[in-house]
Amino acid sequence: MTVSPYDLNLIVREVLSRLNVDSPAAKPASLPHGVFETVDEAVQAASLAQKQLEDLPLAARAKMIENMRKRSSEQITKLSEMAHQETKFGRVDDKIQKHKLVIEKTPGIEDIHPVAFTGDSGLTLTEWAPYGVIGAITPSTNPTGTVICNAIGMIAAGNSVVFAPHPAAKNCSQYAMSMLNDAIVEAGGPANLLTTVREPSIDNAQKIMTHQDIRLLVVTGGPGVVDQASKSRKKFIAAGPGNPPVVVDETADIPKAAKDIIAGASFDNNILCIAEKEIIAVESIADQLKKEMTKSGAYEASPAEIRLLEKACIDPKNGSPSRDCVGRNASVIMEKIGVRIPEDIRIILCEVGPDHPFVLTELLMPVIPFVRVRDVYTAIDLAVKVEQGNRHTAIMHSKNVSNLTLMGRKCDCSIFVKNGPSYAGLGMCGEGYTTLTIATPTGEGVTSAKSFARYRRCAMVDAFRIV
Q: Pairing between strand 194-197 and 160-165?
């Protein structure tokens, strides 16, 4: 009987496990699986693992990914609680839903199927090949979810990954990587397909971005880290900032629009980059929309409260969102200005002018500016302005196809959601696959396994044409 390399690998690992002997690539017990002291050690281990992965069949990758999904599902509550406890961002219940989304709807090897062309001149096969070792920068806003999402897609494409997690999410990110590595080895895959350094830092992230053995960079973060990646002289995929507007015109189903906006804008306390960040409403339905929103879980701040919120929510030194408010519950934010509101209030609604800092700043918190305008054309023009050319995400509530078409064309975003909450654009309560790396600056948009693979062509001339 012939034993395949994959099956032999499984047998060897089982024997080693029963003998209580570590595999050669295993890490000392003092550090989690895949965590190393230096960038060079992390890259070296990932390089070895990637070469081992290339020797395994696609069926082996499928088994690894299946087990990664399984183990992540078993740990979904712990991952959500760890991320919340360490970063203080968002809501545990929403994080559970977010983890479930990436576990179930991140594409695997089915995304990299080959395509063949045949004709009188023979056969040409096109296929997706790995880059090798990927350097992945992950954020504090969606730390464990991004690790899982990236790991599935990048391994499906045949790569290994050296992660550079945000220092504020070090522990939960390392736990997620170690858990996934254990799942990979358990399924017969190589050790250390996912690696990182023990102490994440700006310096270590820069070393990863410039390391000679890193073939591709994938950056999920703000403009600063995207700018650093652009200077690396490597191919990079960048998921940059967004400031998604939601427009509501006079033809919209106002009660539904109100509920959808609150659902999207309040999900995980607005830290998702696709979440509604400002509401632009046509004058004729503005009051009705606010009324429906307050009925559905919004609190409308008074002018005096808005002035206090400006001081609490925006850092006066640099105009950026205050970290003490990012991702916090609405009740916690209002308490900072001495106002108590019910715990079940999901967002704070602030009616302001079109040039207000809340409108022009991606706040990443459930403080949502509300702007009323003359008509839908003014609304769309303002949406384009406040989205600031990020071309990330836009949302519109309307029953007028011409209006929807106009906004979609003018905003020209990677994601455009019509008549639903923003997260429908990621396949949650909507169709399609998901990702937490939306590469707008570099043009890949909603990334998947084939985003992390090279497109190759192999031509057989005057042969293999059978008809």
A: parallel
Q: Residue 284: which of 179, 375, 176 has the closest Cα?
A: 375
Q: CA triplet 335, 339, 340: central angle to 5 degrees?
A: 75
* Helices assigned H by DSSP within 55-198: 58-74, 76-87, 92-105, 143-156, 170-186
In a 13 Å sphere around the CA of 240, the CA atoms on its Cβ side amount to: 23
Tokens 């995929």 correspond to what residue?
237
Contact by Cβ (8 Å): 46, 195: yes
CA dist 374 and 220 (Å) reads 37
Query: Is there a shared CATH topology between the 5-240+446-458 domain and the 245-431 domain?
Result: no
Here the tokens at position 310 are 């400006």
Nearest-angstrom CA–CA distance, 118 and 128: 18
Between CA 216 and CA 372 the distance in angstroms is: 44
Q: What is the identity of the amino acid at 149?
A: C
Task: For the domain made up of 245-431, give the CATH fold.
Answer: Aldehyde Dehydrogenase; Chain A, domain 2 (3.40.309)
CB of 337 closer than 8 Å to CB of 305: yes
Partners of 136 in the beta sheet?
Answer: 163, 218
Tokens of 305: 């409260």
Query: pLDDT tens, 364-412?
Result: 999 999 999 999 999 999 999 999 999 999 999 999 999 999 999 999 9
What are 131-154's pLDDT values in tens digits?
Answer: 999 999 999 999 999 999 999 999
Tokens coding 282: 């046509």
Count Cβ atoms below 10 Å from residue 412 Cβ, excluding itself.
13
Amino acid at 227: D
Contact 172, 144 (CB under 8 A): yes
The continuous run of DSSP H or E covering 51 comes out as helix 39-54
CA angle 412, 400, 373 (to 5 degrees): 75
φ, ψ at 367 (rounded to 5°): -110, 105
Separation CA 160–CA 366 (nearest Å): 36
Measure the CA–CA gap between 131 and 315, rounded to whole angstroms: 41
Q: Does domain 5-240+446-458 have CATH number 3.40.605.10?
A: yes
According to DSSP H, which parts of 124-237 are helical?
A: 143-156, 170-186, 202-210, 223-230
By residue count, the chain amounts to 467
Domain range summary for the chain, segments of one domain joined by +:
5-240+446-458, 245-431
